[in-house]
Amino acid sequence: MRVPLSWLKEFLDIPCSVEELAQRLTLAGVEVAAIEPIPSQGLSWEKICVGEVVRVEPHPNADRLGVAWVRIGPQRVLKIVHGAPNLPASRRSRGQRVAVALPGARIANAYSNDPPQVEVKPLELRGVESQAVLCSEKELGLSQEHTGVLLLDEDAPVGTPLVDVLGDVVLELDLTPNLGRCLSIVGVAREAAAIAGGRLKIKEPHWKALGEPIAGQARVEIADPDLCARYVAALIRDVKNRAAPFWMRYRLWLCGMRPINAIVDITNYVMLEWGQPLHAFDYEKLLERSGGKAPTIIVRRALPHEKIVTLDGVERTLPEEALVIADERGAIAIAGVMGGLDTEVSEATKHVLLESASFHALHNRRTAQRLHLSTEASHRFSRGVPPELAERAARRAAELLRRLTRGEIAQGLLDAYPKKRARRVIALARGEVERLLGLSVKPAEIGAILKALGFILKRQKGAILATVPYWRLDVEIPADLVEEVARVIGYERLPSTLPSDTLPPQRRDRLFELEERVRDILVGFGLTEIINYSLTSFESIAKLYPDGQIPQESYVELENPISGERTLMRRTLLNGLLETVAANQRHHETIAVFELGRVYLPDRGGGLPQEPRRLGIALAGLRRSVSWAERAVPVDFFDLKGLIEALLQHLSVEGAKFSPASHPSFHPGRCAELALPGERLGILGEIHPRVAERFELRGRVYAAELDLERWLPLARELRPYRPIPRFPGIRQDIAVVVNEALPQERVEQLIWKSGGALLKSVKLFDVYYGEPVPPGQKSLAYALFYLAEDRTLTDAEAQAVHERIQKALETQLGAQVRGLA
After folding, report:
1. DSSP secondary structure, 640-673, as one string
2. Per-residue pLDDT for 821 more than 50?
3. pLDDT tens, position by position, 6-31
4. For residue 820, what pLDDT band results from cuts at 50, 70 and 90?
């Protein structure tokens, strides 16, 4: 919510500086996120002033230009050539106040963004000297309007710098959902008066209705009073729907709204001022739809498969539970969200039927979410708009239409109010404030605070009876009153106390501690932790499959997703990891990231989903930064495999093995499974080229996803200690030629099995292909370490074990033992 200070001052005498006001509001829960002065936008405001048009004559050499004489001081009149259609060469242009950019001023370029600003210089246009420029709204950065010059209020002081006339400060409020009452200038004025002091100047709206009575010219029916508490309609005839005056358009601009025309701008202005959304129907279009008879406005639920073309030009199929404003032919608006195109007001509109209503907050929010249609009206209705506000706003808007469009207001209102809301009365017991706040507050101070907030108080024995003002929909129980007292007196006054009870004994969460240890280890390895959304979409998941077809898996889907990109709970971390890699490859040559998070697997019995923890790792780019001494070496599969092996070693997880595997997201033949006997721990490998293309990845990317729920319980807190051998050992190397398709793991397993108790270490240190090794074969070289725990091992003992290993490799695997140079 944006609050121009000048507008706020119309309803409140502010007794302090704007900075102090912002601080007090923020401490009381109405957060002021920013204090914004009028934006300079690079313009030379000091050389732009208010001028008064003395006379306007046609340009002697150009049909579309005029020559204006503009007074900017007691003795100073400038001659200015212009092409503004709203400043014709006639008597009605005399006395108009305009914005004049003097020589040397920088103004916005109204015809191009290159350059964005231009400098005003005296020049000759079609043979006539022009000493300055009459500015349009676009040239001043106020809007995109530049067909005419900016016409200021008649009382704008001549010669005054324009920034002093426009000058304003805007408070940017960041409001929580329970502060719907502050979505208006009047609401903020009430809050500021109670919190910072000052005299309120809020008056009940009044109007001058002299037209024919509205009765008989239209009817209103509420078919669903549970969803529409009140519906008020006013009729204004013979309006002239021209542009709204500058002061209104300027305030709308300051509040972040685009001016459109007088009728629409007035409805938006009253909404910002009082917090009541309004909608204007073209009355003649309603008459045409009803066949010339008085139209009947019906507030009802949407019919099955009912459609409407909304003001944005989009045809929408309405949910059956949606509340609509309809006539006898069909829906003409989505209640509290957006109007329909068929009854839209335009420049040709002559008669206006003005709607001011109160709709159910939760139902309005659901309708807006289902239609993916967020508007200023739905933003307010979804936070609650009291029915008592409908009549006030209707009178205020109707009077503005009378004054600014010269319309005539029909006498009376169409007011359907089937269930009038009773005023809520809350009893606040004596001592309740001290009991909840721990602070003694005098009854007189409590009464003064509640009165300042608009509560009507009546004393009763042992309690205060507080009648809740109509605009406070959030106050329901005595604790709400105590909260109001607390925030007005200041939370800093509340005493800090320690709990009098003893703290419960702390219990260790071993899995949580191990999870934190995994984080520390991976960060120590040089990886960066990332946190992705737990919510994803089918479009994102489909990218994980080369053909784009998602397997038949069930997902936890959201009934009311916040956006189309967050419709279901994830089953894997991979798509989030790859999206992060793709986003960061534009900025970094090396990517090494990990994520610890939960996935969500639906329960087949219909219960709550399972939420196992997973570890995702992704590597891409270069192994190390390039320098004069280092060539560019990209990461590969073994970087990822080695990183996981090191993590297992740090956690003392033993027995885990890597074996070839297949997975649709990974490159065929470059994917492995990490497992223990009978226990699958995860998958790792190079991302499939088609998957990488779908995620717009550059180069080869390697990723892993590990199941922490199965892995972490296997970790040991203490690494087992092995004493240093007392006796020396013997190392012997062996090289064997085997079939290229034979996994190295089988060779190593047979070496261990044949080596017996004396074999202590087996390490592969070379893999070789090519001459003299025959085609289809490979050479594997191992370093074997023999050791006896109780004596010095002899060469003969070691050789005997070594020969036994050679024989087993030759007979069981068909290996050929090579000599080592």
Report:
1. HHHHHHHHHHHTT--S-EEEE---TTEEEEEEEE
2. no
3. 899 999 999 999 999 999 999 999 99
4. low
β-strand partners of 187: none
CB atoms within 10 A of CB 786: 23
Residues 6+ apart with CB under 8 A from 726: 789
What single-letter amino acid sits at 302? A
Residue with tokens 């979804």: 382
- Chain centroid offset of residue 53 CA: 48
CA-CA-CA-CA dihedral for 392, 398, 401, 407, to nearest 10: -160
**Burial readout 285-304 (b: 16 or more C-beta within 10 A, e: otherwise):** bbbebeeeeebebbbbbbee
According to DSSP H, which parts of 438-571 are helical?
443-452, 478-489, 510-524, 538-542
Per-residue burial over 536-570, b = 16 or more CB atoms within 10 Å of its CB, e = otherwise: bbeebbebbbeeeeeeeeebbeeeeeeeeeebbbb
Which amino acid, residue 19?
E
Q: How many residues does the chain have?
A: 821
Q: How far apart are CA 183 and CA 386, in angstroms?
A: 13
Gap between the Cα atoms of 3 and 8, Å rounded: 7
Write out pLDDT tens, residues 168-205. 789 999 999 999 999 999 999 999 999 998 899 999 99
Token pair recorded at residue 17? 């500086």
How distant, in Å, are the alpha carbons of 84, 295, 438 from that of 430?
Answer: 69, 55, 14
User: CA 10, CA 178: separation in Å to the nearest integer?
Assistant: 25
490/195 Cα distance (integer angstroms): 9
The label of the residue with tokens 């042992």 reads 462
pTM: 0.67
Q: Which pLDDT band, with edges at 50, 70 and 90, does 243 fall under?
A: confident
DSSP 776: T
Residue 572 tokens, joined: 């894997």
Mean pLDDT in residue range 95-105 = 92
**C-alpha dihedral, 445 to 449 to 451 to 454, nearest 10°:** -170
Closest by CA position to 133, among listed 75, 60, 63, 84:
84
| pLDDT greater than 60 at residue 41 | yes
Phi and psi dihedrals of 778, rounded to 5? -145, 155
Reported as a single tens digit per residue, the pLDDT across 525-554 is 999 999 999 999 999 999 999 988 888 788
H/E segment holding residue 265: helix 262-274
Alpha-carbon torsion angle 306, 311, 312, 314, nearest 10: 20
pLDDT tens for each residue of 633-668: 889 999 999 999 999 989 888 888 888 899 999 999
Query: Six-digit token pair at 651?
Result: 């956690």
**CA atoms within a 13 Å half-sphere pointing along the CA-CB vector of 5:** 20
Question: Locate tokens 């000493």: which residue?
Answer: 131
**Residue 818: HSE in the Cβ half-sphere, 13 Å Cα cutoff:** 19
Measured CA to CA in angstroms, residue 107 lies from 115, 158, 290 at distances of: 11, 20, 51
Residue type, 492: E
Q: Which pair of tokens denotes residue 266?
A: 């007035």
Condensed to tens digits (0 to 9), the pLDDT of residues 254-287 reads: 898 888 999 999 999 999 999 999 999 999 999 9
Classify residue 12 by burial, with Cβ atoms within 10 Å: 0-12, 13-18, 19+.
buried
Sign for the CA dihedral angle at 53, 146, 273, 267 comes to positive
**Tokens 């071993």 — which residue?**
510
Scored b (16 or more CB within 10 A) or e, 700-726 reads bbbbbbbbbeebbebbeeeeeeeeeee
The SS3 assignment for 121 reads coil
